[in-house]
Design a protein that fits this description.
By secondary structure, this protein is of the alpha/beta class. It has 10 helices and 12 strands. Bound molecules: pyridoxal-5'-phosphate.
């Protein structure tokens, strides 16, 4: 803390993203990126957009992308908000719906950006413990608060709540906003989007980063009834009207429209996930049931921190969180079949 820094930064502990190694020798299974390239149609759309019109500002209301996402989700254009990655969309939602000094709740084991936004914006929070099997205590998520945030499937566990449980949380928090972060929903979890028309307090957040192989493009969405979307736009237009540049709008729109490629790549990841989970179990790992593009696993005898370090020496990066309750787990992103074979071979040497 420097004397010139704003007091806003006094107690801030910024989020630490997973390592992005400078050389390309690592097998990267640490930040839940998609191992397959973005849709070729999306890349072509970005190339086509890289032209003289870049001298013009992008469309502030990203109409084309909005229409594509409306068609994909079955929602109205006015029920769709887009921003520069879902992290930015989440931050915008915290600003739009949670007042300074109010108190929100989220699970104790969840996406570690939530407490960071809350601290930055002066929002208080209580962390609701997950049960011992890492499932969400649904009832506890309906206690008195000023707002609820929940990731489904959860991160970093990969465990999904069935739709009726999410609906229970939304229904029993009718007086406050419930943000459902569906960053990993496309890998085998039922989305809560079809409930949007019934619940004016439901805001769903999704991203292009995982299931659409576009972590580098930065595009994310909020989906909800029009009045919630209007609140997000009001915050955006009080901050930066052009969060999505022309290339991102073109690429994201084409990717959303390429349904076939989306289904093919996510099904491949789901199949690789099932196979890898089986291999890890044979090696003595407990693997939580995953609905995401990663596995959360703990070995019966070798500590996670030790496995993490040895994998790194062998050129394989996974994620280890030095936090209570999960410090003996590794979060392993699903890569290609070849990458997972290399991982399993390395693990055989480490734990065998
Ligand atoms: C990856 C992730 C995000 C952020 O994704 P963006 O790349 O910012 O769109 C949000 N929530 C969860 C739970 C995530 O894992």
């Amino acid at each position: 803390m420097d004397k010139y820094w704003s007091r806003r930064l006094e107690n801030i502990e910024p989020y630490v993203p997973g390592e992005q190694p400078k050389d390309g020798v690592f097998i990267k299974l640490n930040t839940n990126e998609n191992p397959y390239p973005p849709s070729p149609k999306a890349l072509a759309a970005i190339r086509a957009a890289a032209c003289d019109t870049l001298r013009l500002y992008p469309k502030p209301e990203y109409d084309g992308l909005r229409a594509a996402m409306a068609e994909f989700t079955g929602l109205e254009d006015s029920q769709i908000y887009a921003g520069n990655g879902s992290d930015e969309v989440l931050a915008t939602a915290f600003l739009a719906f949670f007042a300074p000094g109010s108190r929100i709740i989220f699970p104790d084991i969840s996406y570690s950006f939530y407490p960071v936004y809350a601290d930055l914006f002066g929002i208080k929070y209580d962390m609701i413990p997950l049960r011992d099997d890492f499932t969400v205590d649904v009832k506890a998520m309906t206690r008195e608060s000023d707002g609820v945030v929940i990731a489904n499937p959860n991160a970093p566990t990969g465990v999904a709540l069935p739709l009726p449980d999410i609906e229970y949380i939304v229904k029993n928090n009718a007086e406050r906003i419930v943000i459902v972060d569906e960053a990993y929903v496309d890998f085998g979890c039922e989305s809560v989007v079809p409930l949007i028309d019934r619940y004016p307090n439901l805001l769903v957040v999704q991203t292009m980063s995982k299931s659409r192989s576009f972590a580098g493009l930065r595009a994310g969405f909020a989906l909800g009834q029009k009045s919630l979307i209007d609140a997000l736009s009001a915050v955006k237009n009080s901050f930066n009207s052009y969060t999505l540049d022309r290339l991102a709008q073109a690429g994201a729109e084409a990717a959303v429209r390429d349904r076939e490629y989306f289904d093919e790549t996510r099904n491949r990841i789901i199949a690789t996930r099932a196979r890898t989970a089986g291999e890890l179990q044979k090696l003595g790992f407990t693997v939580l049931p995953s609905s995401a593009n990663f596995l959360f696993a703990s070995h019966k005898s070798v500590p996670a921190e030790q496995i993490f370090a040895k994998l790194r020496e062998k050129g394989i990066l996974v994620r280890h969180f030095n936090k209570p309750r999960i410090d003996n787990f590794l979060r392993i992103t699903i890569g290609t079949d070849d990458e997972m074979d290399a991982l399993c071979a390395a693990l055989r040497e480490i734990v065998g």
